[in-house]
UniProtKB/TrEMBL annotation:
Homodimer. It is an enzyme of class 2 (transferase). GO terms for biological process: adenine salvage; AMP salvage; purine ribonucleoside salvage. It comes from Nocardioides oleivorans. It comes from the Bacteria. Catalyzes a salvage reaction resulting in the formation of AMP, that is energically less costly than de novo synthesis. This is Adenine phosphoribosyltransferase. Pathway: Purine metabolism; AMP biosynthesis via salvage pathway; AMP from adenine: step 1/1. The chain crosses the membrane at residues 71-89. Gene3D superfamilies: 3.40.50.2020.
Length: 182
């Protein structure tokens, strides 16, 4: 629990709100100060990695998926902390080989995500990692991609959840671990 408390404190202290970015009415949560602080970044990574462990500390997932772009920054070190592989979920047109694709709505537009068809083996248990859970569309689309590969999305871990956008109505029964609820 000390990592979780340290992560929550760091997020509260270091995250910078940027109003009206990337467009009017949106408040962007800038986590770059968290990433620039070694102790804060370490605490955040360890707290997120806990979502991939059971109550005894055993790793219970086979892969960690990170959603473009800030999810990559968090998911890769989480995968290393868990001793498992990392799979990037990219924006459309960024992957060089055959991929599954899913289009979805987000808080200020629409997007398409892709994953290589062979990135997740059938039956592999997958933890999804992202920075902010806003409308839930990115998580729902990523879950679809994991399932298209034959994998099983076991949960999602995020730094922050924007509860006022009610994202859990979109993510369904997927367990969500969030370090900070706004």
């Amino acid at each position: 629990m000390p990592d979780r408390r340290a992560a929550q404190e760091a997020l509260t202290r270091l995250t910078v709100d940027v109003p009206d970015w990337p467009e009017p009415g949106v408040t962007f949560k800038d986590i770059t100060p968290v990433l620039a602080d070694h102790h804060a970044f370490s605490a955040v990574v360890e707290a997120l990695a806990d979502a991939g462990r059971d109550d005894h500390g055993n790793v219970v997932v086979d892969k960690v998926v990170g959603m473009e772009a800030r999810g990559f920054i968090l998911a890769a070190p989480v995968a290393l902390a868990l001793g498992i592989g990392f799979v990037p979920v990219r924006k459309a047109g960024k992957l060089p080989r055959e991929a599954h694709a899913v289009s979805y709505s987000l808080e200020y537009g629409e997007a398409t995500l892709e994953v290589h068809r062979d990135a997740i083996a059938p039956g592999e248990r997958v933890l999804l990692i992202d920075d902010v859970l806003a409308t839930g569309g990115t998580v729902a689309a990523t879950r679809e991609l994991v399932e298209a590969c034959g994998g099983v999305a076991t949960g999602v871990a995020v730094l922050m959840e924007l509860s006022f956008l009610d994202p859990r109505t979109v993510t369904g029964d997927l367990p969500i671990s969030t370090l900070l609820t706004i």
